[in-house]
Write a structure and sequence with these properties.
Helices cover 4% and strands 59% of the residues. By secondary structure, it is mostly beta strands. Keywords: Signal.
Length: 210
């Protein structure tokens, strides 16, 4: 499995979520433990029947460095490193960078900017630059259950670094403190495939946390 894809998973239809009701308290970074695990279904935006099972497991913790195993479908697991806030290491045009789709503490109204890079199957470099806002508390229903979560909205753009393509992008993320991780992640990139939007959603199927 592509390591950049594994890192992006660490990163993971809006009808299942209720809107925020009030500002709500700040949410701190989770206390992770070895053995914590999460199983997701990844569903393609254009072909709802195209799904992949993704399993994320914490395998080691050393200080602020958290090692996780990511298994996608039938591929061999890939080990990646993150931190207690689920930041991901990435490269943008060959330069190392850190992508934060969660920026703890998650305080309603908080804003930040972050970017990440990836390569497509042909090896072409891309960059996505996002502006995030903590929208506030929301209840969300996924296959694993109904959770009190905090919703983060992301708006920005992607571009192919040779300058030949670019368009808008949106992310909607639901993070549940009781689960220590996202329970739903919707990614949409406009104009990516012959001017049609593309993207995927991750929904939590089951989890085991200490």
């Amino acid at each position: 499995m592509n390591k950049r894809f594994a890192a992006a998973v660490l990163a993971l239809a809006w009808s299942g979520a209720a809107p925020a009701q009030d500002g709500g308290p700040a949410v701190d970074a989770p206390t992770l433990a070895v053995g914590d695990s999460w199983d997701y279904t990844q569903r393609d935006l254009l072909d709802k029947n195209r799904t992949t099972e993704v399993k994320v497991t914490v395998t080691a913790i050393s200080g602020d460095v958290v090692s996780v195993s990511v298994m996608s479908g039938d591929a061999q697991p890939v080990t990646s490193q993150t931190d207690r806030s689920w930041a991901m290491s990435t490269e943008i045009d060959g330069e190392p960078s850190t992508y934060r789709y969660l920026d703890f503490p998650l305080t309603p109204g908080k804003r930040w900017q972050s970017a990440h890079g990836w390569l497509n199957r042909s090896g072409d470099p891309f960059e996505e630059d996002m502006n995030f806002t903590v929208a506030g508390p929301a209840r969300v229903t996924v296959p694993a259950g109904t959770f009190d979560a905090i919703r983060i909205d992301g708006h920005g753009s992607w571009e192919k670094l040779d300058g030949r393509a670019h368009a808008g992008a949106t992310l909607t993320i639901w993070y549940a403190p009781s689960v220590k991780r996202i329970v739903r992640y919707d990614s949409v990139r406009n104009g990516f495939m012959k001017n049609h939007p593309s993207g995927y959603s991750l929904e939590l199927e089951r989890y085991n946390v200490q």
